[in-house]
Amino acid sequence: MNQKIVIVGGVAGGATAAARLRRLNEQAEIVLFEKGEYISFANCGLPYYIGGTIPQRDKLLLQSVEGMSKKFNMDIRNLSEVIRIDRANKKVVIKDLRTNNEYEESYDKLILSPGAKPIKPAIPGIEDANNLFTLRNIPDTDKIKSHVDTNNIKKAVVIGGGFIGLEMAENLVDLGIDVSLIEASNQVMAPLDSEMAAMVHEHLVQKGVTLHLGDGVQSFEANGTKVNVTSGAHVDTDMIILSIGVTPENTLAKDADLALGVRGTIVVNEHLQTEDEDIYAIGDAIQVTDYVNGTPTMIPLAWPANRQGRLVADHINGLQATYNGTMGTAIAKVFDLTVASTGNNEKTLQRLNIPYRAIHIHPVSHAGYYPGGAPIALKLLFDEQTGRILGAQAVGKTGVDKRIDVIATAMKGNLTVHDLQDLELAYAPPYSSAKDPVNMAGYVAGNIMDEMVETVQWHEIDEIIANGGIVVDVREPIEREAGYISGTLNIPLGAIRERLTELPKDKAIYVSCQVGLRGYLASRILTQHGYKAINVDGGYKTYKYGHY
Amino acid sequence: MNQKIVIVGGVAGGATAAARLRRLNEQAEIVLFEKGEYISFANCGLPYYIGGTIPQRDKLLLQSVEGMSKKFNMDIRNLSEVIRIDRANKKVVIKDLRTNNEYEESYDKLILSPGAKPIKPAIPGIEDANNLFTLRNIPDTDKIKSHVDTNNIKKAVVIGGGFIGLEMAENLVDLGIDVSLIEASNQVMAPLDSEMAAMVHEHLVQKGVTLHLGDGVQSFEANGTKVNVTSGAHVDTDMIILSIGVTPENTLAKDADLALGVRGTIVVNEHLQTEDEDIYAIGDAIQVTDYVNGTPTMIPLAWPANRQGRLVADHINGLQATYNGTMGTAIAKVFDLTVASTGNNEKTLQRLNIPYRAIHIHPVSHAGYYPGGAPIALKLLFDEQTGRILGAQAVGKTGVDKRIDVIATAMKGNLTVHDLQDLELAYAPPYSSAKDPVNMAGYVAGNIMDEMVETVQWHEIDEIIANGGIVVDVREPIEREAGYISGTLNIPLGAIRERLTELPKDKAIYVSCQVGLRGYLASRILTQHGYKAINVDGGYKTYKYGHY
Ligand SMILES: Cc1cc2nc3c(=O)[nH]c(=O)nc-3n(C[C@H](O)[C@H](O)[C@H](O)COP(=O)(O)OP(=O)(O)OC[C@H]3O[C@@H](n4cnc5c(N)ncnc54)[C@H](O)[C@@H]3O)c2cc1C
Ligand SMILES: Cc1cc2nc3c(=O)[nH]c(=O)nc-3n(C[C@H](O)[C@H](O)[C@H](O)COP(=O)(O)OP(=O)(O)OC[C@H]3O[C@@H](n4cnc5c(N)ncnc54)[C@H](O)[C@@H]3O)c2cc1C
Ligand SMILES: CC(C)(COP(=O)(O)OP(=O)(O)OC[C@H]1O[C@@H](n2cnc3c(N)ncnc32)[C@H](O)[C@@H]1OP(=O)(O)O)[C@@H](O)C(=O)NCCC(=O)NCCS
Ligand SMILES: CC(C)(COP(=O)(O)OP(=O)(O)OC[C@H]1O[C@@H](n2cnc3c(N)ncnc32)[C@H](O)[C@@H]1OP(=O)(O)O)[C@@H](O)C(=O)NCCC(=O)NCCS
């Protein structure tokens, strides 16, 4: 039976589905509609073409309409917008954007991969801001690039500190432009918790980006050359990149009475079918199940779109194909830093009332004695009862992607924090340590589960001190010169056994060091000498960023 | 109950066990004997100190006798060789190497972590070769470094192409020395299969190393300045590094009548206890169970030593502690290449008659359009019935460590090749592709299991052609100019649908391309048009290295 499959959207999800459909079935009739001029382009490369890291525009175009049509023997129609779905008659209505003609095309199966569009709220003055851009596709990119190239841009405002905003900030700085980043929440990179995001803030400032955090845009003035923020201040600028998130392209689905979910996403089942079993939906536009907490959510990233594209083709061809939810593994290069995360963060777990424990460690990316290593700030969230890994975040200059990928893999394998100790990872000095940072995270988390140590978090310690708690800093005096938690005593680790008598046995003794390791050692000593010792997780370094 | 624990060997396994023992128990009496001058040094950094990448010698010394004694409140005695175990009386006899005095020390538990020593066979002339060195510890390193620094060395011979030999070759080249590498087997890096090792061979030659493969050392002449090889040739040299492997330090165990296993390793149970339950053994000296195939083996690497050191301390303190076998995950930097592997290779699986399938892919380490990526040659071995992953090997300039670690993690999680498709790995252009190389390996292996494609291996194709088989190269004609499998027809992928009639339907059609992807696409087309198509796995690139 020759099926006719119509696909709406010709980029990540749509093009992948089309390619796999053809591989699975040489006879199927495949018609792909794309409203834009280009199919199969590298959305994720766009900021780097603007900044010049990717010098050639054609590198962004992975497949051409002609090339892909021929290679996969399919009917690809660009500049063709699908404007309506006629579910009863299994037809779509297409508007040819070259001619404005409308026509119909029937389908046996319909795949929607329309993506998402940048959110553009009705901020006063936005209509007149002719220097304001959003970034989603090649025409957007061309517009931004030509604006930058021809207008001698000196100052730019980026609104929104998500990964696209940060990538644009970096790329504009690379072009010698003075960048101000305006972000309404108190941190960039929402998948991170605040103490982790603080490292990104510090780095952005070091790179010359002016940060306006916790400060929303109030209005635009003077055709967008003046941006007023809620705090009352304003920023003068030559251009604006608006990147405050995306909203699903759901018009087709909505008009066809298909159920919508979270944030207007298209609801699908585990086979990626909408309420209408002949209509599939994939990619940025759909609602997915959060892999960790099971709630419905929207996770607009390229991996899910690609994965779903392949699965949908399989399902249409009668193969087993189940999408198991999205973890949200994400990564961004922010100047010299790599910022990555997987699973849930603390904010999400708190919101959903999911019990968790957090650890923060700061191991070096590879053997300390081999040049080129750098600390990785690694945060792991886990269930203390079962050891289940709930999420991880990492920030550092090198080796960050590897550790997040390993943890994401462990999560797919249902490995616990104890199992992380057992991961036999590749070690030679240029790549890791004999105890890899991920092993170390397993040890530190395992010690909490095994009741080897009690810990408190960076955000709890000020109140503890305010209430008269005893906090001992076990670093060397010279280390305190670069900063310490005020109200702490100082007994270096090496002296702790001799100076035990200085500490009371009837009160909890909080112990703090630089990253948590020596505090742990001190806690073990104290505990075994009959003290109630509690280690400040992640040490002063975590505390410092928590208070950045 | 205060236990007295005696440890033999103060480096990777021994020092780690000691540290954890103290953390677990502040009261235990811990006595650590090390026959060398130094404890807790970075064995793995030694070649890089010789080559100058690590400039300071003291960076190699992680803990000093004094520092560690104080920090962990333990009794550490260097230059103290344990020369006998008196199991009946639970005592060891120690020789103080400063004074040559012998004395006894009792133990409740004894931990042996004596490591392994370089193999030094009785090759004719070896005794007079005063320019011949092995490398295991700091004194060895000092000797090599001073030989190199003071003797105006121009030419060196490295015997043995394992990771230490290759690291030494690189570091000597870094010093401007002309290096010849002599390896008796036909390949370097035994954990790799030959077609993977061939990439390392090519790279070594590019870096100016003279390779003598499949050529053993016959004898040394003229105090080691002339090395005669089995083929009849000889190499003149100013110095020799002998690195043909290690043999377990088993004298103590053997003399104490503890069972020895494979290659003279000390036999232990899953709690790392020898036949004598009060004597534990860990590290390079012990027999471990191969995680994949279950057979006993010796895997002298730092991760196992560190892991076992901690487990042994746990077990002695009554905690749950089971060592689950060793996968052998290993990695080495070889000039600009990273070479890594985990699990079993094809040679091992063949030797043990374990059924397997192999795939070879050559994806780019990250998005092709973003600068800095490089191809990764990734080989995956799996069980076709169950999808179980049996092993993986990877060679490339960047991103290799990450992929092997992800696969090693997947193996610990008992994930199948189909599950690799589902791994949600961090994607942004500088780090990966929307389908990561590991996902891709999952797709390619999954397609074999799902009977989407049949494949043959690089080593099968010459015979197929010799027997009159039809092999179609589906690359563009211009690509063939850089080399092709002789005896192949050329029908570019784009023309295959039109030129089907040129091919017979009654014979198998073998299809080949550059890396296997287009061959797969062509196979799918051919199969669905009623041909029996078989793809040459890994394409011409794999074939080429297989025949290097
Ligand atoms: C600048 C930028 C950087 C990014 N970087 C990353 C990154 O580093 N990592 C990552 O994981 N993700 C990244 N993404 C997100 C990633 O590109 C998306 O998640 C992915 O492309 C989603 O695939 P999709 O198929 O759902 O939508 P898209 O790839 O956007 O494709 C949807 C297509 O459908 C077309 N379309 C919509 N409606 C219709 C219609 N009615 N008729 C015809 N055609 C229609 C659209 O024109 C569009 O071309 C980035 C996105 C952008 C914009
Ligand atoms: C040059 C080099 C590079 C390496 N690179 C890597 C790498 O990149 N990755 C990797 O995974 N592994 C690497 N290794 C291997 C790694 O160092 C070992 O696997 C690890 O050190 C084994 O730990 P161990 O405790 O068993 O033995 P060791 O660390 O060797 O410690 C054993 C100690 O016991 C002492 N000893 C022996 N007998 C006695 C006795 N009777 N009395 C007292 N003391 C005794 C020895 O003097 C020695 O110091 C490398 C090794 C070398 C030599
Ligand atoms: C370019 C595009 C059409 C490619 O789709 P695709 O053909 O599915 O993907 P690839 O070219 O990577 O090929 C993957 C296929 O080749 C196979 N393959 C890959 N390497 C192989 C090899 N060495 N040997 C055999 N088969 C191989 C895989 O198994 C897979 O086939 P399958 O799905 O049938 O199992 C689509 O991904 C796209 O448009 N991407 C751009 C948009 C985008 O993703 N944007 C977001 C990120 S910037
Ligand atoms: C240096 C050496 C003595 C260290 O042993 P160690 O104390 O077990 O290891 P580390 O210093 O890495 O510390 C690990 C401990 O600190 C804990 N830790 C690490 N970071 C922490 C943090 N941020 N917060 C709290 N605890 C932390 C870990 O949980 C672990 O403790 P545990 O085993 O009780 O769970 C030993 O590994 C050694 O001698 N190594 C050199 C030889 C060698 O390994 N050679 C081969 C490779 S070159």
From TrEMBL, chains A, B:
Cofactor: FAD
Alphabetically ordered keywords of this record: FAD, Flavoprotein, Oxidoreductase, Redox-active center
Protein name: CoA-disulfide reductase
Keyword set includes Oxidoreductase: yes
UniProt keyword annotation of Magnesium present: no
Superkingdom classification of source: Bacteria
Entry similarity comment: Belongs to the class-III pyridine nucleotide-disulfide oxidoreductase family.
Species: Priestia taiwanensis
All residue ranges annotated as the Rhodanese domain in the record: 465-548
Gene Ontology MF, one: oxidoreductase activity
